């Protein structure tokens, strides 16, 4: 199987062009290629496929083999892949995902995509649609006790469910212990991604993320969007926010008039190769 390893501010996936390749068991393949000792090493597997609804389709799998609905960093890489590889000459591309069709605008130079702005759609705030179990219609600053510690969380779906909690110092979060407790809490029937956020100022936040099915990653695009939306809802920031993640920065803007969230960031090809995969 031919593959391309790509990353968006450190959120790395193995990409396979399914216009040319066939992946019989994507879940098992994701587990194998994601292994950083016996495989390629990644946060998961993303298949680039034809679509009858958009220009392309993104089919993504987490490192544990579970299928994901949407990946903000991943979709920027898909847009770069199809442009750089000459699969399209468009700089405005539509990509089908499990959470709907997303629209990407590329900034290019010398025939290569350098930056991608993604229209991430409207944030989902209703608890039942996130989904999260709550007596409230929306979960904004709601208390939750994890491992004897009280957190106040704001829940947002950006195609994936997110619980955003605020901490004094993201570096001190024991994320390997706390992340799984959030992820598998009965409050979240489909599990949850958790963002631990510190507000620097009204224009800037920093964040660490525990992603369901993958653990801590260097970046999460949908999580950055959810964190920005949560910070705006709680009155901590303005409508345009720089989100500082372990792997780099993303610019997030929530256009409240249109009720659309826009994410801008880089995407890079790391290396390409071939691997013998399970059929």
Automatic annotation (TrEMBL):
GO terms for cellular component: cytosol. GO terms for molecular function: diaminopimelate epimerase activity. Pathway: Amino-acid biosynthesis; L-lysine biosynthesis via DAP pathway; DL-2,6-diaminopimelate from LL-2,6-diaminopimelate: step 1/1. SUPFAM superfamilies: Diaminopimelate epimerase-like. GO terms for biological process: lysine biosynthetic process via diaminopimelate. It catalyses: (2S,6S)-2,6-diaminopimelate = meso-2,6-diaminopimelate. Homodimer. Catalyzes the stereoinversion of LL-2,6-diaminopimelate (L,L-DAP) to meso-diaminopimelate (meso-DAP), a precursor of L-lysine and an essential component of the bacterial peptidoglycan. Belongs to the diaminopimelate epimerase family. This is Diaminopimelate epimerase. It comes from Murimonas intestini.
């Amino acid at each position: 199987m031919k593959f391309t390893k790509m990353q968006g501010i450190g959120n790395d996936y193995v990409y396979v062009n399914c216009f040319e390749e066939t992946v019989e068991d994507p879940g098992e393949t994701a587990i194998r290629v994601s292994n950083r000792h016996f495989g390629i090493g990644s946060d998961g597997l993303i298949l680039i496929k034809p679509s009858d609804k958009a220009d392309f389709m993104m089919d993504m799998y987490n490192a544990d083999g579970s299928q994901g609905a949407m990946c903000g960093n991943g979709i920027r890489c898909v847009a770069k892949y199809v442009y750089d590889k000459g699969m399209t000459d468009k700089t405005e591309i539509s990509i089908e995902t499990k959470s709907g069709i997303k629209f990407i605008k590329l900034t290019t130079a010398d025939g290569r995509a350098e930056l991608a702005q993604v229209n991430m759609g409207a944030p989902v705030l209703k608890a039942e649609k996130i989904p999260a179990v709550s007596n409230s219609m929306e979960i904004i600053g709601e208390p939750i006790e994890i491992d004897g510690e009280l957190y106040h969380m704001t829940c947002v779906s950006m195609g994936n469910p997110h619980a955003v909690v605020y901490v004094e110092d993201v570096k001190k979060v024991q994320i390997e212990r706390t992340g799984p407790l959030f992820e598998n809490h009965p409050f979240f029937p489909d599990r949850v991604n958790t963002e631990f956020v510190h507000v620097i100022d009204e224009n800037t936040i920093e964040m660490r993320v525990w992603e369901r099915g993958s653990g801590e990653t260097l970046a999460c695009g949908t999580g950055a969007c959810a964190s920005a939306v949560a910070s705006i809802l709680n009155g901590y920031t303005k409508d345009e926010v720089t989100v500082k993640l372990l792997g780099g920065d993303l610019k997030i803007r929530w256009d409240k008039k249109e009720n659309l969230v826009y994410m801008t960031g880089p995407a890079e090809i790391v290396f390409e190769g071939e691997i013998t995969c399970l059929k």
